[in-house]
Structures are given as C-alpha cells and as structure tokens.
Amino acid sequence: MSPTGGGNLLPDGPLRHAGALVSKILQGFKDFIMRGNVVDLAVGIVIGAAFTTVVTTFTTGFIKPLIQLLGGGTGTGAGAWEPRKGVIFDYASFLNAIITFVITAAVLYFLVVFPLNALAERRRRGEEPPPKAPSEDIVLLTQIRDALVARGDNPDAPPYGRHQEPPR
Questions:
Q1: Second label for 132, Cα 20 to 30 Å away, from 14, 80, 92, 114?
Q2: Residue pLDDT, tens place only, 21-39
Q3: What superfamily would CATH give domain 14-129?
C-alpha cells in the first residue's frame, strides 16, 4: 500500500513521475516497433552487409590486383611501399577500402536513397501516381455488392433491382 492508503505501490512524489515516464517511454517504444519501420531497417542492414561483402570481394579479387599491377609487381609486397625495413605502407589495401566504400555508397544512394527522396518529394507536392484501375474481379464484386444493396431487405426481389431490366 502507498502511504496515502491507495492501492498503488509507488509512493507519491518523484518515483510516481518516474514510473509514468518509464511507462510513456515503453509505450512509445512499442508504437515504434509496431510501425514496421524496424523490420524494414533490419532487412536493410542485412542486405547492406551482404552487399558490402560482395563489393569487398570484388575489389579484393579484381581491383586490388589491378592496383598491384600498376604499382609494379604481383608478389606479397606488391601494392605496398616499404621505405624502411619492417615499415610497410599497404596502399593497395587502403585504395581497396576506399573503392569498396565508394561503390557501396553509390549503389545504396542510387537504389535506396534517391528513389525514396523522389517519392517523398512527390508526396509532399501531392503528386502521387494515380491508383491503378481496379481489376475485373474487383469490378465484378462491386457490381454484385451494388445489386445486393439495390435489392434491399426483400430477398424475393429480382437481382437487378426493383425497376431495372436484366442486361441483354
């Protein structure tokens, strides 16, 4: 029991406000999770990680050997500069990382960010594409619904309405 005799176990004062704050935060988190954006984010992260692996493999397998050829050699020291014994600057790996980053960023920008920004801009201006025309099934179901509504409460009424002729 609380000191005031109510059924709430939280005492009056700062702890009660903290409990309300925690409850509000948890409700906000629940709403955030239920929106579906978290699932989209998780899928994006997994796909981004997989794509990064593909780009890294491409740059390691194809781009880095080209850098090594241009740098003068194909051995273990190729693509590296050794100004002093034991001090190695592996510029091929650094260029490989830069190329991996640029390719990954460009693909994500052109396949994800740019289309989403264009869609958001269209929505902001109110220029969303018109909805597609309903399929034949939907049109038929709409006609059936309208015919049932036209019959009203009388199940013995003809299916075409009280004063309509059947289509020919």
A1: 114
A2: 888 888 877 776 666 566 6
A3: Large-conductance mechanosensitive channel, MscL; domain 1 (1.10.1200.120)
